[in-house]
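Tip: read the tokens left to right.
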């Protein structure tokens, strides 16, 4: 490949990594609090659809983004209500939330547009479009320059981060120290839900400027894998998102390369997911999960 092709590959990698990084950080916050949020795929999907729908009606991507934030709050509250308040099995609550959100969005999409063409909506413009690599969306800059450092410093250096990690490791000890386990887990799930929904909205309000069925294409599940791959640490989760996005961008480049013309298209599409599975297989040994992972807790 030429130097220009390499720069285009890196640019595409950073863009494609943005929703993965947002989703993975949201999931990481939930899991560090002891809650496996399998509602992530549905939350990202709902963020993409609601953001698209509101942006189209309001004529502003910012309004669509605000609506996605709202749906992220609601999705986080739903998972928290089921897992924290009622102690429902976290796998069941998360998958049920994903199925509910995706089915609701698909139903609304078919009700509004039927088999017709889904319209284009106002989307975020590229910043510095003529500058290699730096030609990114504003949400990408916000993600890597603000959100990633904020999550890292919150978990590492703030009282809330200490409480969240304490609740995820030993909720009994945290409760005895006067920390509200329920309130902390609610906060983690709501903040995580917002990040997930914004990651989904990035797909419809930045990359596509529209909405398609299966728009997330399993990215939520990839985010869950990235958190485990990163061993619940912020920087490795971001690097994992960049790795997946790099392979995803690379396979798009390889598809149009004559030397790989004989490789089945299905293999190329599966390549990023195969890399994630391989990375999990290599890094998944001797994992130390958060101490209260998947464990409900009731104040006595």
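Filled-in amino acids:
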């Amino acid at each position: 490949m030429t130097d220009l092709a390499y720069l285009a590959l890196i640019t595409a990698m950073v863009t494609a990594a943005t929703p993965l990084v947002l989703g993975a950080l949201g999931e990481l916050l939930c899991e560090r609090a002891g809650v496996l949020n399998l509602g992530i795929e549905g939350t990202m999907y709902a963020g993409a659809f609601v953001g698209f729908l509101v942006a189209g009606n309001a004529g502003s991507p910012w309004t669509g983004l605000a609506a996605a934030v709202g749906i992220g709050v609601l999705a986080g509250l739903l998972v928290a209500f089921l897992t924290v308040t009622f102690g429902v099995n976290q796998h069941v609550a998360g998958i049920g939330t994903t199925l509910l959100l995706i089915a609701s969005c698909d139903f609304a999409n078919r009700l509004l547009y039927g088999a017709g063409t889904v319209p284009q909506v106002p989307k975020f413009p590229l910043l510095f479009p003529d500058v290699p690599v730096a030609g990114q969306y504003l949400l990408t800059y916000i993600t890597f320059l603000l959100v990633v450092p904020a999550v890292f410093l919150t978990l590492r250096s703030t009282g809330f981060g200490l409480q969240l990690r304490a609740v995820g490791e030993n909720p009994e000890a945290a409760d005895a120290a006067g920390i509200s386990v329920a309130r902390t887990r609610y906060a983690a799930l709501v903040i995580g839900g917002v990040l997930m929904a914004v990651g989904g909205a990035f797909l419809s309000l930045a990359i596509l400027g529209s909405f398609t069925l299966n728009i997330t294409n399993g990215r939520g599940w990839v985010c869950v894998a990235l958190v485990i791959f990163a061993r619940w640490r912020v920087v490795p989760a971001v690097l994992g998102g960049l790795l997946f996005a790099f392979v995803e961008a690379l396979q798009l480049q390889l598809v149009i390369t004559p030397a790989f013309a004989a490789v089945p298209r299905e293999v190329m599409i599966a390549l990023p997911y195969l890399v994630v599975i391989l990375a999990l297989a290599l890094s998944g040994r001797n994992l130390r999960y958060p101490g209260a992972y998947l464990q409900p807790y009731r104040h006595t």
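The radius of gyration is 19 Å. DSSP finds eleven helices and two strands in the chain.
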